[in-house]
Amino acid sequence: MNQLDIFGNLIPQKSGINPREGLIIIENGEYIFYPNFFSKTESDLLLKGLRSHIVWKQESMNMYGKKIDFPRLTAWYGNNDKQYSFSGITLNPLPWTREILKIKNKIEPIAKTEFNSVLLNLYRDGNDSISWHTDAEKELGLNPVIASVNFGATRRFQLRHIKTKEKLEIELTNGSLLIMQGELQHFWQHQVPKTSKLVGERINLTFRVIK
Description:
Blueprint: E1 22-26, E2 29-34, H1 40-53, E3 60-63, E4 66-69, E5 73-78, E6 84-86, E7 89-91, H2 98-111, E8 117-123, E9 130-133, E10 146-152, E11 155-161, E12 167-172, E13 176-181, H3 184-187, E14 188-192, E15 202-208
Antiparallel strand pairs: 1-2, 2-13, 3-4, 5-8, 6-7, 8-15, 9-14, 10-13, 10-15, 11-12, 11-14
């Protein structure tokens, strides 16, 4: 499938990996990607602050009659009336922190969206992951804008079209910003797979609007 940049030019593809930045239009959706949105200095400081100041939790879900821990640590922050439910759990938000507000204020002009909530995931090493899913819960509304910010180790982010099974892959680097928008959440699943490579910690923040 051909992909076009913001100017309508054909983007050359190689092994399903798209390193281009800016607005990328794909079938049934679009995303904006900036691999170095935050400088290395900013990213390293924010990673340290988030690691220390966020109240990280080990959430779990029931599967096949057993309690299974999520393969990552999580946290939910935002406006105090914005709960979020997924995978059989309901999260109640903690108040915004200084680091989160700094990130939020910087990305909102790019996303053209005022976010009221953020889900944080801490991937401790290559064994931590998140499986195929969409961010299409009803409280996110129609065609949600999801802004994903990454600090720490680089991890592979994969997209898979629900009907055609086409896959795309993006390397989410330290300080990168990925904004998913349009119909994407209704037609494309995404995941961060496990890796056997030796990788360090990674913190991912996905900002969203809870209706």
